Amino acid sequence: QVQLVESGGGLVQPGGSLRLSCAASGIFFSFYPMNWYRQAPGKQRELVASITTDMITNYADSVKGRFTISRDNAKKTVYLQMNSLKPEDTAVYYCNARRGVSDFWGQGTQITVSS
Questions:
Q1: Which of 27, 35, 37, 66 could share a disulfide with 50, CB 3.0–4.6 Å?
Q2: What pLDDT score does 68 carry?
Q3: Are 80 and 19 spatial neighbours (Cβ–Cβ below 8 Å)?
């Protein structure tokens, strides 16, 4: 059974930082490119950051220079370090593992950026 379990969400003030973690089980983690998506109320889910099996990273323009995605294959975990958070970063953040037709999602974790 595949599980992706996110943690690290919460309430943070503008300008603050959070680190999200996503622990995977039931998949050969190092074979999977990993992604972080987010969905704000009333908006479509959007890709925030991705990391390939070769550690190549890519970011949405809205988070470049503020967010950093990384992975630890030994721990089967992907991270999203979020700095200089803005109110518009408020959303539910989802971890995703996708390879070919295999497509797995976590349950999501809420990030609220507010003073």
A1: 35
A2: 98
A3: yes
Task: Say how far apart CA 111 and CA 8 lie, in whole Å.
Answer: 9
To which H or E segment does residue 8 belong?
A: none
| Whole-number pLDDT of residue 27 | 93
Mean pLDDT of 15-27: 97
Give the C-alpha distances (Å, rounded to integers) separating 78 from 7, 13, 23, 81, 86: 11, 24, 7, 10, 22
Q: Note the helical H segments in 1-115.
A: none
Amino acid of residue 37:
Y
* Cα dihedral sign, 92-108-67-55: negative
Q: Token digits for 66?
A: 């503020």
Reduce the DSSP state of residue 90 to 3 states and report it.
coil
Backbone region of residue 55 per phi and psi (left: phi > 0; alpha: psi in -120 to 50; beta: other values) = left
CB 97 within 8 A of CB 4: yes
Tell me the one-letter amino acid at 108. G
Q: Tell me how far apart the alpha carbons of residues 58 and 46 are, in angstroms, rounded to a whole number.
A: 13
